[in-house]
Design a protein that fits this description.
alpha+beta
């Protein structure tokens, strides 16, 4: 589409010949970005089509280009800093957003960072995750505590409420209690109190069920003995 210029100002359109070259040279960048060559092309077109009766001051052209150059340099510096920061993640303990996980997150140590299809990705446990999905960079102790809490909460979410529990869940509840008791005081602070309450209620409900079943068995044994006599 050709340029549309009114009173020396660009109204719409792009220079297709330059835009094509720009697209070829900047395929890894945002499609809406503008290269220095394209900017200069637009600037020259604006100068050539300005109102001769009210020409724009030359200092304004210089100012426009200087401003564009500064913005472009700042953008490139930021991109370089972001990339360097990403590579600094190697060997760090991190938490990343992972929709495929039951907890919504994945934790682990970054083995390496590489680029795939123009995007930086990090390897955690033989799986690749976009650096943009990084949630937190944490200490090893914090990572272990978070990992344990997420696992414990997933186990608790899989258990029924106390009103619906049956004796079939006795071993699972006992395993959950063992896992919780094996945590350090620091690790336990990552567990929501509602899960601890649920665990206690499940244990109480299972004790009542066990007592009720024992009473039923004793009654049954007494009845069988009486019938025999």
């Amino acid at each position: 589409m050709a340029l549309t210029i009114e009173n020396g100002q660009i109204v719409s359109g792009t220079d297709t010949s330059k835009a094509t070259a720009s697209t070829t040279n900047t395929t890894s960048k945002d499609a809406n970005s503008i290269s220095a060559d394209t900017f200069l092309t637009l600037l020259v077109a604006e100068m050539q089509n300005q109102d001769p009766l009210e020409p724009t001051d030359n200092t304004e052209w210089v100012s426009q280009y200087a401003t564009f150059t500064q913005v472009q340099e700042i953008s490139e510096i930021k991109e370089t800093v972001d990339n360097n920061s990403a590579y600094d993640l190697v060997g760090k303990s991190v938490i990343v957003v992972d929709d495929s996980s039951s907890t919504g997150y994945t934790t682990g140590v970054v083995d390496y960072v590489t680029e795939e299809d123009g995007e930086l990705v990090m390897s955690i446990g033989d799986n690749l995750y976009p650096v943009s999905d990084l949630d937190s960079v944490v200490s090893a102790d914090y990572l272990e505590a978070v990992s344990l809490s997420l696992t414990f909460e997933a186990v608790m979410n899989a258990l029924p409420d106390a009103d619906s529990v049956t004796s079939d869940y006795t071993d699972a509840v006992a395993a959950a209690r063992e896992a919780y008791d094996s945590m350090t005081t620091y690790q336990k602070t990552f567990i929501a109190s509602s899960y601890v309450t649920k665990l206690t209620e499940l244990e109480a409900a299972l004790e009542k069920l066990a007592a009720s079943e024992e009473t039923t068995e004793e009654t049954s044994d007494t009845t069988d003995t009486t019938d025999t006599e």
